[in-house]
Design a protein that fits this description.
Chain lengths: 339, 342
């Protein structure tokens, strides 16, 4: 199958390869030429394809080809050496050092703060407070469920700190989705615990995103790790909390040295087009990817372990049950966290 | 003394300026951002940004609203408005002093040309450069409109200056947008009225907004014709059903003419509005020299904020060259005379 990405309206359409071929042919040819090419028998089908595109406002009919409607430039760039940060919060760690301050002077855009265990609102406030006055735009809080932290209190929190634009509450008694701050901030109550980074790296259809940022970055870089940095529970600097390698401790490391370290930068340059199986997958430029848990732990270019999609059969299967994946599951010690 | 890029903007509602500043910082281009609000902090004229420390100026915005409010003891609508106008004029009085104190060649756009830009003049100038424009007239009577409706099926009426927002007594807001006049609604037009701009209505296939940056046109096609709300004016945004906006390449010949037009006005940046009619002909509408380019840059992936930062950076190196030239010549001369020394 193929994927038709609507990068502006952030939608995608899963279409057969034959349909995609017709669309590609129509890029350079008139409708009549297309009918002539595929045969009069296919006229109705071709017209249906065209009607579909028009109904979704993906195109229009005209008297002539319009070469002035040029293809989109797919280059990608950002004004920051690090755009996204994940912190696995630990109150025993000192986040006041030069590494931390220099990191957020880089114009980091988004930060995820993960609290695996219950924490008081005062402590959350004190931590979020330090980003006032930085160019950070977006904070996502991952919190452990606490019945004291009701929606009213969370609403007050996000109004006081408008950088907080998303909340995920794990270990919640029921799965539900709410919105606070006049509907602008989603709060997801997740009914399973998130108590370590082992839960990360799942590839699911509802994680797929069709937008310009991801699509263009994915052409050149790894969308999960490019220009991204994490500080794990013990204060070690990593590409992501789930990766094996670390680049020193937040208390002592030099930010410049980490950024210039070719090992640190290596993962960011692994494109979906470089990865086995993924390179043939129609979802590859909408995908989150994962380099921490892969099918063959010896091969950094192998498919994400926690992906159950087969692009050759277009079927989703439960990855945890797949016989070929059991060795890797055991290797990462993922058995216990799965169910 | 090392020179900086001067960015004149405002402190709020300016994501485009913020974005350019982030790129300037990342690319390590020295700059100074002065917001209109800063003029209330300056203690005297000496605090205004000066010529010698400035390599180039990007003049984006003056100010949105003053950080202080004044009212008269016996306030009524009329005097309140007069006072507001007066304060704006006072503010402009000190602000536009910069147009004279900082050398004109350093401004990305000639500030005096920008400040007194006239829509009718721009249209006339465009025609002089061979750029097609819709038939445009300023009329004062219904009879004149009736006469024009004999030549053109429909006309539009729009302000000669800028659109305004009107607020009602209960805070309700009214937007001024382009309106159509045809034989069906002609009777609603008063017999005599304030001099008003009317223009031949172009039935558009799509609109084009082009951001002009130092000789290059970065264009975007806006498909608003399927949407009743935005059919006449795409600024009448529909957030539920956004207009499709895609990259577009204008014909080279038209780009060349637009380049000449912008140069003749002393502009190195600006937004250009065009329309493409059902037959595929282009119609030039207007220039917006201060240009909202975020709405073109993002959907077309043009990175205009970065390109603008790079253009400003060039101005720094250019200014340095001018200042260092005599010094460099001396050094070269010394080297030729005494090749062994250094």
């Amino acid at each position: 199958m193929s994927l038709l990405y609507d990068l502006q309206l952030r939608r995608y359409y899963h279409i057969p390869n034959d349909t995609a071929d017709v669309y590609l042919f129509l890029q350079q040819h008139s409708i009549e030429e297309c009918v002539a090419h595929y045969g009069e028998d296919n006229r109705e089908t071709i017209e249906d394809y065209i009607d579909f595109v028009i109904s979704r406002e993906l195109g229009f009919k005209d008297q002539q080809l319009l070469p002035e409607l040029t293809t989109l430039d797919l280059s990608w760039d950002r004004y920051a050496d690090i755009t996204n940060v994940i912190i696995e919060y630990n109150e025993a760690i000192d986040y006041d050092g030069p590494f931390f301050r220099e990191l957020f002077a880089l114009h980091v855009q988004a930060l995820e703060i993960r609290y695996y265990h219950a924490v008081t609102l005062d402590k959350i406030r004190a931590f979020v407070e330090r980003f006032n006055g930085t160019t950070l735009k977006y904070i996502k809080l991952v919190l452990s469920y606490d019945k004291v932290l009701d929606l009213q209190l969370l609403d007050k929190l996000v109004k006081q700190y408008p950088r907080v634009k998303s909340l995920l509450i794990h270990s919640s008694p029921v799965l539900r989705q709410e919105k606070i701050f006049d509907g602008s901030v989603p709060v997801v109550f997740f009914d399973k615990p998130i108590n370590s980074c082992m839960a990360c790296g799942e590839i699911r259809a509802n994680y797929f995103v069709s937008n310009l940022e991801l699509f263009t970055e994915s052409q050149h870089y790894n969308t999960c790790l490019n220009r991204k940095l994490s500080i794990n529970l013990n204060g070690y600097i990593k590409n992501c909390p789930s990766m094996q390698e670390d680049y020193g401790h937040v208390a002592t490391a030099s930010l410049r040295q980490v950024l210039d370290n070719p090992v640190f930068r290596r993962y960011g340059s692994i494109r979906k087009d470089d990865i086995t199986v993924c390179r043939d997958c129609e979802f590859r430029h909408a995908c989150t990817d994962c380099r921490a848990y892969v099918e063959n732990p010896e091969d950094v270019y192998s498919k994400p372990l926690k992906c159950g999609y087969d692009p050759y059969t277009n079927k989703w299967e439960d990855w945890t049950q797949h016989p070929m994946k059991q060795a890797a599951i055991a290797c990462y010690g993922l058995k216990e966290t799965n169910n | 003394m090392s020179q900086k890029i001067l960015i004149l903007s405002q402190s709020h509602l300016e994501s485009t300026t913020d974005h350019v500043c982030l790129w300037m910082d990342y690319l390590r281009i020295p700059f100074l951002r002065v917001n209109g609000e800063d003029f209330f902090r300056f203690e005297n004229l000496g605090d205004l940004p000066g010529d010698t420390a400035t390599a180039a100026v990007w003049y984006r915005r003056k100010i949105n609203s003053f950080p202080v409010e004044y009212s008269l003891k016996q306030a009524d609508f009329q005097t309140q408005y007069t006072l507001k106008r007066f304060l704006i004029d006072e503010f402009n009085g000190v602000y536009s002093f910069l147009f004279h104190t900082i050398s004109r060649h350093k401004w990305l756009n000639d500030p005096l040309s920008e400040d007194r830009l006239n829509k009718l003049h721009v249209l006339a100038l465009a025609r002089q450069h061979g750029i097609p424009t819709p038939f445009t007239e300023v009329v004062t009577t219904r009879a004149a409109i009736a006469g024009l409706l004999g030549l053109y099926q429909e006309l539009i009426v729009k302000p000669l200056s800028e659109c305004i927002f009107v607020e009602g007594a209960d805070g309700e807001q009214y937007k001024m947008l382009t309106k159509t006049i045809n034989s069906a609604n002609l009777r609603m037009v008063p017999e005599k009225f304030f001099p008003s701009l009317v223009q031949e209505k172009i039935i558009k296939k799509f609109e084009i907004r082009s951001f002009y940056l130092d000789g290059d046109c970065y264009s975007m096609a806006i498909f608003s014709q399927n949407n009743q709300k935005t059919k006449e004016d795409f600024r009448n945004y529909d957030t539920q059903r956004p207009n499709r906006t895609v990259p577009y390449k204008l014909p080279a010949e038209l780009e060349l003419k637009l380049d000449q037009l912008m140069r003749s006005l002393g502009f190195r940046t600006g937004s250009i509005d065009l329309m493409v009619d059902m037959e595929g002909h282009y119609h030039f509408l207007e220039i917006n020299p201060e240009g909202q380019f975020g709405m073109v840059s993002y959907p077309c992936n043009y990175y205009l904020e970065k390109k603008l930062a790079r253009l400003l950076q060039q101005s720094i190196s250019h200014e340095e060259e001018i200042h260092q030239q005599p010094e460099r010549k001396e050094r070269t001369a010394a080297v030729t005379v005494f090749p062994g020394e250094r």
